[in-house]
Amino acid sequence: MLEWMWEKKNGISFITVPAWNQQGIDIAFTGRNGGASEAPFNTLNLGLHVGDRNELVLENRRRVMQLFEQDIEQMVCCQQVHGSRVVSVTRKQRGCGSVDMKNWLTDTDGMVTNQPGVYLAAFYADCIPVFLFDPIKKCIGLAHSGWKGTMGRIAVNTVNIMEQDFNCQKSDIQVLIGPGIGSCCFEIKGDLAAKAIAEFGQFRDIISKEKNDKYRWNLPQTIYHMLIERGIKPENVSMTGLCTSCHTDLFYSYRKENGITGRMGAFMGIRD
Fold first, then answer.
1. Pick from 180, 171, 176: which is nearest to 255 by CA?
2. Overall pTM > 0.85
């Protein structure tokens, strides 16, 4: 089973995967502390679109990229529309969305690359980050999987792009499903529960019934099941099991903080 751990560097706590680090892959999922932003975005807000001061967000992004001894211009960011579109990126896209939203990758929630020096970056406040790595082809992928992206099977779409564009084998792909809102906190109404059951009826124990037409949906487990169904080996998939809504001391939570909050960052790059 893939092992993940918390690491702290330059005052920033982040989740990483030592085995991937040893193979030349930089990976981090940041918490909310160690940055320059003020309340309600305190302190390591990495989202330019939430109402925080741009200069503080860019300072926070620089601090995170310094964890890898890299520059902010090596980041590639996408628009994140809660869709299921995944694109391949190259060194030509470096800098897209890194300091300005005007040139981010539009209508995109997932990215894949095999080129060193390209740092995929996406931002979260309850949605589920999905990190993928093929150690044979040296190919990486990153997906932003909220409930809409989960319905659209963006994690599976990312695997598809890794296979189609980079000749990856599903048996080689390793996956970390990172922190996001858990079933403990993701309460949904009956109409959405019905849609999820219609889409994922073959998966057991992902929807639990509460009272008053309320349900709870386990998004990380749903993503896990769809990846296994797609052919990813169970032993190659790990989940942190951390709920962002339960732990607002560590993470931002859109739902818990009523939409007024910052964004964590998921970063993944192949070292030059």
1. 180
2. yes
